[in-house]
Amino acid sequence: MHEVVLIYSHRFSMMLMTYILILFTTLFQLDVNNDLENRLFVALEKGNGKELSKHFTSSVRISVNQDSRLTTKFQAELILEDYLNSNKLVNIKKTDVSEELSKQCIVFEAVSNRRKVRIFIKFIHLKGTDYISEFRID
Fold it and tell me: What transmembrane ranges does the database entry give (predicted)?
C-alpha cells in the first residue's frame, strides 16, 4: 500500500512540474512577443524601416497598396523606408485579432498623411525567435 502512495505521489509531482514548465514557457513567450510588438510599434511611429527590417526573415513578402512581391531583407527595408518617408504614420493602434491569430500576426491601424491604413505583420518562429515573414500595408 505504501508503494502505491509513492507511485501516485511521484506521478503527481511530475505532472505538477510539467504544468509549471508549460506555464513558465507560455508566459515567457508572451513577454517576448510583447517586447517585439513594442519595438515594431516604436519603429512604425518613427518611420524607421531599418529597425523593422531587423526582424525580417532573409526573404519576406512585402505588400504596399496591393503591390505584393517576395523580396530580400534588404529590398524590403528599402521599400519600407521609401513608403514611410513619404507617408508619415500617426494615430497607430493595435487591432484586436482572435487569440489563435495573435500568436502568428499583429495588425495595426494608422493614419498616414493621406488616408487610413492597415498594417498586417505575420510572424514565423525560427530557432527560438519570432521573425517577420510577411508585411502588408493596405
Answer: 12-30
| Contact of 104 with 122, CB cutoff 8 Å | yes
Question: Above pLDDT 90, what percent of the chain?
Answer: 60
Torsion of CA 71, 137, 113, 42, to 10 degrees: -80
Q: Does an H or E element contain 120, and which?
A: strand 116-126
Cell numbers standing for residue 79: 521599400
What CA–CA distances, in Å, run from 82 to 2, 77, 87, 91, 100?
Answer: 73, 9, 9, 20, 32
Sort strands 116-126 and 129-137 into parallel, antiparallel or unpaired: antiparallel
pLDDT value, residue 25: 43
The CATH code of the domain that includes 11 is 3.10.450.50
Q: What is the pTM of this model?
A: 0.73
